[in-house]
Amino acid sequence: MKTVLVGLSGGVDSSVCAYLLKKNGYRVIGVTLRLGQGEEAAEDAAKVARHLEIPFHVVDYREQFRCKVIDYFIKEYTEGKTPNPCIRCNRYMKWEAMLQLADEMGAEYIATGHYARIDRLPNGRLAIRNSVTAGKDQTYALYLLTQEQLERTLMPIGEYTKEQIRELAKEAKIPVADKPDSQEICFVPEDDYAAFIDANLPEDVSLTGNFVTREGRVLGPHKGITHYTKGQRRGLDLPMGERVFVTGICPDTKDVIIGKNEELFTTRVICEDVNYMGMEALEEPRRVWAKIRYNHKGEYCTIRQISESRIEAIFEAPVRAATPGQALCFYEGEYLLGGGTITEK
Length: 345
What we know:
alpha/beta
């Protein structure tokens, strides 16, 4: 009997993941990594483990999480970027920590409640595949995973819709069957990331500056660059007489650039620190389907290598607000080929 270590978040998806794997003959061990969330997640996970009659452990990873995710999150915002902490957490916290624990506990596999699937492609590489339900597809947040991590990962939830998962949870009488999905960053209270960053900055660090036009005309002071992201319209409080948007952020001067909506569109996006998944490397230009943020519908583009760690994507239709710090993920059909971090450099 194969043993699998299941990451239990206290939510319905990971709970059904554990239930399905036990039903399919695996020896299941539940584990909750104490990261940025409160006690409720661990308590709910413990209830699920008792109900499923599986061993359960809570492991404190808050210090590592602070170093690898929270400090990175704050640093990126202070540099005028808009990071996606879940992407970094998945590879450098959840997967690395879970695989280390799996080795210690004698488990061959780890499993998560992500809406995604894993397949081996004809080229021999493992790739994340879109889930059966487009509305919950989570492949974008998994592009940094390595071949070694994928080799030991199970994702049974990717074969189901959210509605089917809820039904399975009710049929199995899982205690969290009706628990709402969390939409917030787990370590940011009330999803107020700007207040969280302000509270965690040294007192002598100021991120305030001015709203300016692309030509350099000063429009007035702003609250701090961490309060803004490219493409933002709400909360600017600028009496311009027309709809204006954040079109850029200058971390050196702390200026927030204001412009019109049409200035946000581009057909050229650069990304760096590329991780290849479904392909070995980018040896020649390749036409792919790409997303520039989690909820972007995607668009066709041609990608090509422009330096050792950077690629250029030329889109066939303009994309809006390609934001530094976010990921550009590229696909072929249902399969994730890789991705990198969007940069303006």
